[in-house]
Design brief:
By secondary structure, the protein is an alpha/beta fold. The chain has 3 domains: 124 residues, Response regulator (Rossmann fold); 175 residues, Rossmann fold; 128 residues, Helicase, Ruva Protein, domain 3. The chain contains 20 helices and 16 strands. Strands 4-1-5-6-7 form a 5-stranded parallel sheet. A 5-stranded parallel sheet has the order 9-10-13-8-14. Helix 18 crosses helix 19.
Length: 442
């Protein structure tokens, strides 16, 4: 692609006289505005682009190049423009290389060849997600562990029995539940996620099962509960182990009878909904400790799925890292183009105690903090050997990663425990336990 924003004859000078013309072995798409360039890039992925401009409208040009970072841009500028701070910053942040007018067409062809070779090498580094994976499930990856999980999801999807999902924090339990729902006969119905530990104890009964008008002070109208709102679809009870014992009794009754009692109601309501529950704690141990009902455990544990931790998905690590890089591309520093080989090695060697959530946090931080064009291990908070910080102890690495994640979430939420728990994807009780374990004051 070639963009001549000033229309000063650069295209004619090097022989790019018509749209779509072949020039020196290159198939050229020549445009004269950023709008036309953006339109062309939406329909075709150009590995290399040439930008000719005197940099009038520098902010629009900077924004355009930031959005279309995957193209290797070669700048062509008048000598006087190249002396300006704005131009030097643009070249540093966005350009593979640059030339000054008048252009030496032979040297420009050499530059374009090098840029194209670099783009090809970068694209070959990691395979992108296939169209099948995009159409299949939100669970990204093509390794053996995630493949087995997909197979299990397809097997249980069209059954009507409850599903119990176990997995470490941040491993993707809710995505697994969403995939089960999406492949079931209930896919057209609602999917209602409920964080069982995030609901205030005083409101839990009403929130889950609803209430009748006048049931208590402030109940000015009938209210449908979250379970009832999932009628015809799926209700996902996340962190089911944090559900108070009193509500466990009501949930057991619902699973047995498929009916609920709203608070203040004198009659039951039939609700057709499938239940998927999840926990990061061993519910059988919770049963033995008396914090979880044994009959409810066996009622839920009909179809059991285990979500693999990230440390068992080494082959998917760079695919996921690149996916999150693309997802949060708007947050990156303009000059950051991707991961260095050393960063990729560190990612593969790290144990990822915080699972996918830790990977997301480290990638997002690196995209902002990186000082070069490629992310290096220290930008991720890893060493070249893949260990977090300077400690070789896995336990210390995990505690440090957990502490950083919890402190960051609390700071972003203004110390609001409920908001921080939602951001972390855990219940309030789980967050309180983490804060106590990590010696973090609320």
């Amino acid at each position: 692609m070639s963009i001549d924003l000033d229309g000063n004859g650069f295209l004619r000078e090097v022989g790019m006289q018509e749209f779509g013309v072949a020039w020196g072995g290159w198939q050229v798409c020549a445009v004269k505005s950023l709008t036309a360039a953006a339109r062309a890039l939406r329909t075709h992925a150009f590995p290399v682009g040439v930008l000719m401009s005197t940099l009038d409208g520098i902010e629009e040009i900077d924004s355009f190049l930031h959005q279309h970072w995957a193209t290797q841009w070669v700048g062509v500028f008048p000598p006087r423009v190249l002396q300006t701070t704005a131009c030097r910053r643009l070249v540093r942040d966005h350009c593979y290389d640059y030339h000054t007018l008048p252009v030496d067409a032979v040297r420009l062809q050499h530059t374009l060849g090098h840029a194209y070779g670099y783009a090809t090498l970068r694209d070959m580094a990691e395979s992108p997600l296939s169209e099948m994976e995009h159409a299949d499930m939100q669970l990204k990856g093509h390794g053996a562990a995630i493949g087995r999980l997909r197979e299990q999801i397809l097997k249980v999807a069209n059954a009507s029995a409850p599903v119990l999902i176990w997995g470490e924090s941040g491993s993707g339990k809710e995505l697994t539940a969403q995939a089960i729902h999406a492949h079931s006969i209930r896919a057209a119905g609602p999917f209602v996620p409920i964080n069982c530990g995030a609901i205030p104890a005083s409101l839990a009964q009403s929130e889950l099962f609803g209430h009748e008008k006048g049931a208590f002070t402030g109940a000015t109208r009938d209210k449908q509960g979250l379970i009832e709102s999932a009628a015809g679809g799926t209700v996902f009870l996340d962190e089911i182990g944090d559900l108070p014992l009193s509500l466990q009794t009501n949930l057991l009754r619902f699973l047995q009878e498929k009916t609920i009692y709203r608070v203040g109601a004198t009659h039951s309501t039939v609700v057709d909904v499938r239940v998927i529950a999840a926990s990061h704690v061993n519910l059988l141990h919770a049963v033995q400790q008396g914090s979880f009902r044994e009959d409810l455990y066996y009622r839920l544990n009909v179809l059991a799925l285990d979500v693999p931790p990230l440390r068992e998905r080494k082959e998917d690590l760079m695919l996921l890292a690149n996916h999150f890089f693309a997802t949060y591309i708007a947050e990156r520093a303009p000059r950051v183009k991707g991961f260095s080989s050393a960063a990729a090695q560190a990612i593969r060697e790290h144990a990822w105690p915080g699972n996918v959530r830790e990977l997301i946090n480290r990638v997002r931080r690196a995209m902002v903090m990186a000082e070069g064009k490629l992310i290096v291990p220290r930008d991720l908070g890893l060493t070249a050997s893949g260990k977090a910080g300077q400690s070789a102890a896995l336990g210390g690495s995990r505690l440090r990663a957990d502490r950083e994640a919890v402190q960051a979430s609390l700071a972003n939420a203004g110390s609001n425990i409920s908001q921080a728990a939602r951001d972390l994807g855990v219940s309030r009780m789980t967050l309180y336990r983490l804060m106590k374990k990590l010696d973090i004051e609320g």
